[in-house]
Write a structure and sequence with these properties.
It catalyses: 2 H2O2 = O2 + 2 H2O. This is Catalase. InterPro entries: Catalase, Catalase_3, Catalase_AS, Catalase_clade1/3, Catalase_core, Catalase_haem_BS, Catalase_immune_responsive, Catalase_sf. One of its GO terms (molecular function) is metal ion binding. The structure is a single chain. The chain is built from twelve helices and ten strands. Strand 6 and strand 7 form a beta hairpin. The radius of gyration is 25 Å and the shape is globular. The N and C termini lie far apart (about 70 Å). About 35% of the residues are buried. The model has no long low-confidence stretch (mean pLDDT about 95). The structure holds protoporphyrin IX containing FE. The site of protoporphyrin IX containing FE has 27 residues, from strand 2, strand 3, strand 4 and helix 8.
Amino acid sequence: MTQRVLTTESGAPVADNQNSATAGVGGPILLQDQHLLEKLARFNRERIPERVVHARGSGAYGYFEVTDDVTGFTKADFLGEVGKRTETFIRFSTVADSLGGADAVRDPRGFALKFYTEEGNYDLVGNNTPVFFIKDPVKFPDFIHSQKRDPFTGKQEPDNVWDFWAHAPEATHQVTWLMGDRGIPASYRHMNGYGSHTYQWTNAAGEAFFVKYHFKTNQGVRSLSSEQAAELAGKDGNSHQTDLLQAIERGVNPSWTLYVQVMPAAEAAEYRFNPFDLTKVWPHSDYPLQRVGRLVLDRNPDNVFAEVEQAAFSPNNFVPGIGPSPDKMLQGRLFAYADAHRYRLGVNHTQLAVNAPKATVADNYGRDGLMATRNGRRADKNYEPNSYAGPAQTDAALSAPLAVQGWTGTHEAPAHVKDDDFFQAGELYRLMSDEEKSRLIANIAGGLSQVNRDDVIEKNLAHFHAADADYGKRVEEAVRALRED
Ligand code: HEM
């Protein structure tokens, strides 16, 4: 085997990678040692800003295969034919901790999926939970501040976590979910994924439907108890990464079956609660799950930094036939992600291999910027319209229009018959077995009892009481018992 030559970034051979150049033996280092200067300077620039949330994650490539006909609901080309396969990239993540945090923690998990379709990249940036803590994006920075490290103590504080929830009754459903058995998945392979928001599908005839996505794991849902997780996190902080990497390296390719719930658009206004409220699920009895296809992961990235850390998913990357609903949280997210990417990765992040379209090419008049590698072909004009056969609009509607009414203003969502923040938390509680309920109560009480202020504890207890009388009573008793200890 021929020996590869070590070079500088400009490709020149390096003579010595063990000794810096000095003025005489034992003398100071020379400024002319280009290899040393370049090596140190480059090293200083290896880190980029981590994601402000979901900093810690793992990625994998795979494919999505359509198994059932959904052309009655969407004209999206990649869903247009049974058997059609589309390459995908997924990034799983935890939410609250920084890049170095442990995997086995109680936290929602991100489930961000990129479909490299022939009509452009479609990003579905979901979680392993069907609901979320809040329903208006203006609350998101406050919510995240309360869950991440405190600026003074430098660690997550139960006081902040529960103080936010005390002021957010709409979080009760998701808190019940998070503190229950599914709050700590055994691995990324053993959890479901949800689009969580309501999205809009439009079919070829221009008819609109509202949909919710459910990816059911074919590995079975498996979770860890708080005690198991604490032990595992201490032994192997990278337990989810290890599991995913090794499974795919062994050829044990994880898969998920995608189902959707479909609501004809005309039913939304009269539904008994706001169908665009991210803190609520649609009962399957109203809108049953309909199978769409399966997602298979079969290839690990070659380089974690290049492909996972630099991966950029944005909920506003849609393809024709799929679009946003009026869900306010989703609307806020349509702005937030690409903005984060421009800050974190730069304006040309879409040109990185993991983010660029694979089954088509991006062809537009965007030019230049830091680190540009794609700038149009030689004689291409950089303005539009032009007389030189440059790319032009299609005039084909991407998705059906959404009806709006009324005046601008900082409104609450439109009222529906049953909009209260607690009934679905109560329903989730009543679905649990006695053992599940006991673990849920112990997890909530373990956190809530550490809160210093009584008024914050009382406000949280009131939410559990409002969800279900037995739920409230048991949490209250457990918290009081721990506080008296
Ligand atoms: C990551 C904002 C709600 C799932 C992020 C990032 C931002 C953000 C700025 C970092 C993006 C990056 O640097 O690449 C927001 C805002 C929200 C919101 C403003 C509410 C208004 C949600 C919800 C979900 C979600 C409801 C799930 C249903 C994710 C996931 C990631 C992420 C999975 C990680 C994506 C990746 O792996 O690169 N979010 N988020 N977020 N968010 Fe959100």
